[in-house]
Design goal:
The protein is an alpha/beta fold. The protein is 25% helix and 22% strand. The strands form 3 sheets. Strands 1-5-2-6 form a 4-stranded mixed beta sheet, covered by helices on one side.
Length: 245
């Protein structure tokens, strides 16, 4: 089970309190940090500093003696907060729960190449492949949209790519049925379609969000999900086995 939880700066313990409650039923096997926005100091040692004069840049001796150029680049979706007390919250948690804590994952399904290629030969577990585990920090920005009301009509969505990565990490071929009890506008079912998951069950209490989910399912219909059930959570009262506890 993958559980995405965000926290307000004024209530930072909420995700951890939920984890402590769920420990009665599941084992927390992995904690993934979904990075939504990040600023990186870009250090460069192979070009002249940004304030170098043209005459300096044409003189290789002067260039080699100048300090490296440094810039700061920002990536992702930054949502500012107006507070003198708190930092901007640029990440959320994705908690990976299992029943035993010993579930094998397809770690290289999300693999990335080595930056230092000498590691390929140095570490035997690579078996000569230029691919390593991505780790537990996932930078997944939101897609750029023109109208939130039309394209993302929900206050707390996650990108489709985030759900895709969870499916692939678990192993697409091992997913018999995918369940999302808090469907929202259906990003998880869109991810399931893209990954070729065959059966999906989703629940949503808001009829407007449910309609948006069905519209997106129809738009993305293709060689993917063959059996699907998406319904209002209110209807689960008629089905005791599906009732929330």
């Amino acid at each position: 089970m993958f559980l995405n939880i965000g926290a307000a700066p004024s209530n930072p313990m909420l995700p951890h309190e939920i984890v402590m409650t769920l420990r009665e039923f599941f084992v927390l096997q992995n904690t993934i940090h979904w990075i939504k926005s990040i600023a990186i100091d870009d250090h460069c040692s192979r070009r002249p500093a940004g304030d170098a004069r043209r005459s300096d840049q044409s003189d290789a001796r002067n260039v080699s003696r100048r300090e490296a150029a440094t810039a700061i680049r920002s990536f992702g979706h930054f949502k500012p907060i107006n507070s003198p007390r708190f930092l901007n919250d640029c990440h959320e948690y994705v908690f990976h729960f299992t029943k035993s804590g010993r579930v094998k994952l397809n770690r290289l399904a999300l693999g990335v190449p080595y930056q230092d290629k000498s590691n390929i030969a140095r570490w035997r577990h690579t078996q000569g492949d230029d691919l390593r585990c991505r780790g537990n920090t996932w930078f997944v920005p939101y897609e750029t949209i023109q109208s939130r009301e039309k394209e993302r009509p929900h206050p707390a969505t996650f990108p489709v790519q985030l759900a895709e990565w969870c499916i692939k990490l678990h192993g697409v071929s091992r997913v018999e049925t995918m369940l999302d009890p808090f469907l929202g506008i259906g990003n998880s079912v869109v991810a399931a379609q893209r990954c070729g998951v065959r059966r999906f069950i989703g629940f949503e209490i808001d009829d407007a969000y449910l309609s948006e989910t069905k519209r997106r399912i129809t738009r993305g219909r293709g060689p993917g999900i063959s059996k699907m059930r998406v319904t209002s959570r209110a209807s689960t009262a008629r089905h005791p086995r599906l009732r929330r506890h």
